[in-house]
Structure formats: structure tokens, C-alpha cells
Design goal:
Elements (H helix, E strand, L loop, with lengths): L1 E2 L12 E2 L10 E3 H9 L2 E2 L2 E5 L3 H15 L2 H5 L3 E5 L4 H9 L8 E6 L9 H10 L7 E7 L7 H8 L3 E4 L5 H14 L3 E2 L1 H11 L7 H14 L5 E2 L1 H8 L3 H13 L3 H11 L5 H19 L6 H8 L3 H11 L4 H19 L6 H12 L7
Parallel strand pairs: 2-4, 3-9, 5-8, 5-9, 6-7, 7-8, 10-11
Antiparallel strand pairs: 1-6
Helix pairs in contact: 1-2, 5-6, 7-8, 7-9, 8-10, 9-10, 11-12, 11-13, 11-15, 12-17, 13-15, 13-16, 14-15, 16-17
Amino acid sequence: MDMFCALPQRRALGYTKSAEYTLKRGVTMTCEELMRDVRKGTAHSIYVLHGEDAAEVRRSGQQLAGLLVSEEQAAAGQMLKVSGKWDMEEFRFWLQEIPFLGGQKWLWWHGCPWLGEAGAEEIAAAAEMVAPWPEYAGLLLTATKLDKRTRFYKALVQAGGVEAACAMLRPWEAEAWFAQYLQKAGRTLERDASAWLASLFSSSQQLAPGWLEQEAEKVLLYTQGRKRISLTDVQTMLAATPEASSFALLDAIAAGQCARALSLLEEACRSSNGAFMLIPLLARQLRLQLQSLEVQGGKQELAKELKVHPYVAEKLLRQRGDVSPGLLRYLLQELARLEGGIKSGTRLLQGELEKLVILWCEKGRQKK
């Protein structure tokens, strides 16, 4: 059993029981909707949070755990946190043990295999234990895999649990989300700052709300006392992110500044996973550049066809420059090969990335 480290908890809320969003009624909320309901005082005894991004699922679980149990309650042992496979008998013992001081105890189980990964017999046995669910216990399950056909899931349905999907945001959704988050704090993004963020977010296929919230909080802290947030503000606060690194690297490549591009690449590769995070971001930009070749017209037509901000479309046209489609495809294939090698355990050599950057900067004058 892998015990979680201690997490900061928020104040306890005054709850009212409600079946408005039970699984029985087939309702799936987003994690943001669920958090909003819990803050308003709507509480349940069973929560299931799931999504494709493991970091976002865990972050959402941490946030919900902090809303459900106060720091004082957590210190008193009212929140048990476990991860991965857990012995069924230990779970049974925890479930049957009534809190000595009364009240409700909680279990946060991250990566619970009974949501789909365990064998059918084990899942069936687990389902027998949770029906009926005791009033003195609360269960928070977080996982990247959820099979709604299992008996365990159906038992949670019958017990009136709540399911929430930790959904990721598309780039254009992330831009609006970020601006709205700042507006709620009484701040406004200047136009060039908003355009820069739109271009920055376009380097990712999807973004986690938790990451956006973290970066927005940094910007708010940096700009305390000011109502308007400038381009310099957001660039200063987000400069160290992999997205910003790929953004700056592509600008240097488009300008033919090979020395600067190599310097930016070296800086990105200094962190343990910097190159691994940079490769898919660069690959996405290459795919967008290839798609842009098929669009007739200027930046407005390109923005409409690719569903990107006009500023992003303008950057794409500038970054693409006179690079041939053949070179773009070759670079994309090589990035895919490097990423596949990393995932299979092959060590990434920075020199291989440097060769691709040099070739890219030279805009095809060096032939494959």
C-alpha cells in the first residue's frame, strides 16, 4: 500500500444531503461543477473522479479531499489515503470500523483497481462489500480508467455515489477559461497578452484546468495591486513552462536564428523531462503547419479552418515560412521516432534534437 503524503486541507463545510446528482440518475458532472456544488453545501458519501490525465485526476482528488475534510479532522485521522492495489481484507476492516469519536470518516483511494483493472471475481467480491453503504463512511475514488459495466461500479450507483469527469480543455477553451479566471479576481488581460496566451495554448492539443489555475494564480500574485495584466506580466510568469519554451524555440527557428534556437533547446533539456514534454509540443506545431498548407487564403481563412485565434494563424504562417511540405513531414516523423524511443526506454540524445533544429532553421537547404 502506497500512502499519500500529507496534503493541505480546507475548512470543513456544512453539508446538506442531496440525491440531485447521483449516478443512479445517470448524471456525469465535470470536476469543476462538482467542486462548486460541494462548496455550496451539497455533499454525498461516495465520489468517483476519473479522466485521461493522471495528474489532473489526482489534483482534483486533492482539491475535493480538502473540501470534504478539514485540517483538524485530517490530523485526527478522519481521512485515510491509499494508492494502487489495496488488500481487500484491509478495506473490509476499514469499512466495518465505526469511528470512535463519531462523525464521518473518509477514504481517498487513488487508482482503485476495482473500477475496471482488477479481475471479475475480485470486483464482484468488492461489490458485495459496499452494499449497503454505511452512513459513517465516505469514499473518494480517483482513477484514469473507469469501466461502468462492472458490478462494483453498479453497486456504487445503487449507493447513490457521484461521478465527475476531469475533462481537459482545448486550446480555444483554455484561453477563455484563463481570462474568466482572472476576471473573477477583478483583473483584465490586455489585448496583446490575450493574443500571446492564445498562441501559447495552441501548442498543446489539450490543457488541464488545474495547470491553468496554477499559472493564473502565479499571474495574480505577480500583479497584485494592478487591474490590467500586460503582455510582459504573462510572459514573465509563464516563461519557464514547456509550452513557452516551444513557443520561443519556434520563433527562433522561423527567424533563422540557429544559435538562439540551439540555446533555447539546451535550456529546455536541462530538466529531467523537459525534452520529453517539448517533443509533442513541437510535433503539434508541425502538424498545424502542414494543415495550413492545405488552406487557401490568409490568416482569417486559416484561423477559421483550423479553429485557432487569428494571432495564432498569423504566427503559423510566419513560423512556417518557406519550409517545404516534405521537410515538415520528415521532421514530424523524426520527432515521433524520438518520442517513441523515450517511451520504450531508449535514452534521448540531445544531439539528435539539435540536428533536427539545425535542419529546420536552414529551411531545407540541407537535404535529408
